[in-house]
Amino acid sequence: MMNEILELRSGQVAYISSLMAGFSLSIAVQIIRGKDQRLVATVNYLLFIVTTLLFLIALYIDVSISLRLVGIESFTEEALDAIGRIRNFGTSAATSAFLLFILSIGLLGWLKSNRTGIISTVIVAITLATIIVARNMIVGLDF
After folding, report:
1. pTM for this one?
2. CA distance from start to end of the chain
3. Per-residue model confidence (pLDDT) at position 2
4. Cα angle 39, 42, 48; round to 5
5. Can you say how many angstroms the Cα of residue 91 is from the centroid of all Cα atoms in its chain?
6. Can you state the angle between helices 77-112 and 39-68, rounded to 10 degrees?
């Protein structure tokens, strides 16, 4: 359970979440500026907004816990369990946002043309399959 504290202190989830929230919001703004009124543009915009908000949830949780734990070196088992549960909520939000971000990228191709949409969808499907296989391999590691 001490890995939770080490992960938290590395700040990686917060760092990546803040970057990705900015990227997602920037893309959403660009979709609005394009003034495309098609349903695919609206859905894509909404997906990027949800992605942004999920990344912000993950960012808030990690930063809030980090600030609360500054200076604490020793943790009870109950505290570690509570931190793990709270971080699980945040990392689940970040993981969901990451997957939505990838799906939204695939949907962007449809704003250009049907051909580009098909190609981007295939590339995203391959990317998601690769991520799922890699994640299962990582989760299955025995230490």
Report:
1. 0.84
2. 13
3. 59
4. 140
5. 8
6. 160
